[in-house]
Design brief:
single chain; about 280 residues; alpha/beta; Arc Repressor Mutant, subunit A; three-stranded antiparallel β-sheet; 6 helices; elongated
Length: about 280
Amino acid sequence: MFENGAGTVCGDVVLNENYAVPAGYSLHIPANASLSGSGTLTGGGTFTADLSEDMVSLPTDLYYNGQNRSNDIKTRLSDGLTQGIAICGQTFAVSGWTVEVSRTDDLHYTATYTNESDTTKNFTKPITLQQSGTTLDGAVKTYNGETETKDFTASDTISGLALAHPISEGPGAAGHISNKTMQIALNFQEETDRLNYATVMEIDQELAILRSRIEKLEFYVAQLDKRQAEVIRKYYFEEKTWPELQKEMHASSRTLVKRRDDGLTALMAMGQYMEGVMKERIRI
C-alpha cells in the first residue's frame, strides 16, 4: 500500500511476481507483517523494516573447530544487521538492534536479539554448528611429487626411484637400479600400502560415526511435531529454499521459519536430555 510516496507492507504478503516500486518511493515492513516469495522488487528509493524473528536467517556454514566460536558468530550476525536483510531481491535496512551470542556446548549456541527501545520485541535464535571432518593436522600425510594425496600408489614410488642417475656404488650403466635401491623401493611399497590401508580404515570409521549420527538425528526428528519435522527434513535434508517450501507447503515464510526454529529447539532439548540419561547410566 503506497500513499504520498511511502509504502507499507500489510499482513503476510507472498510476492511471486516481479514488482517495480515507483522511483523515489520508500517501502517499509512493520512489525507483525512479512514479505516473502520468489518475486523480485525493483526500483524504489529506500527499503526499511522492523526486524522480526522470521527475517533472521542464521548462517549454516559455521563449523566446530575445537574453540569457543561465540565471538565469530556474533561478528557474522552483527554484520548482517549492519548490512540489512535481503528480502525479494532488495536489502531492507534495520536499526535499533543488537545481538549477543552465548555458548551452550561445543556445537550449540544461542543468539539473543535485543531491541534498544522496546525489550518486549526481543527474541532468541538457536544455532547449531556443523561438525568438521577428520583433521589431518599432526597426522601422516603422503605426497605424489609436490601434491598431497591419499591415492599414492606403490608404482609411483618405485617409478620415482627407478629413474636413477648413474650409481656411484659400483659399475653400472645410467638408469641401473642397484639391489640397495630396489630394497628401498620395496620398503616404500610396503609403507605406502600400510598408509593407504590406514587411510581407508580411517575413512570407514568416520563414515560409521556419520551413519550413526544421521540415524540418531532421524530418530529425534521423527519425535517432533509432524509439521516441524516436515520443514526440517525438506530444508536441511532435501536442501529446498524457502520460496520452494512456501509453494509446496502453502505457508508464509514466518510460519515456516517458526516451525523450523521450534523444531531445532526441541531437538536441542532432546539431545541434552539423552546426554543426561547416558551420564546417569555411566555413574550407575
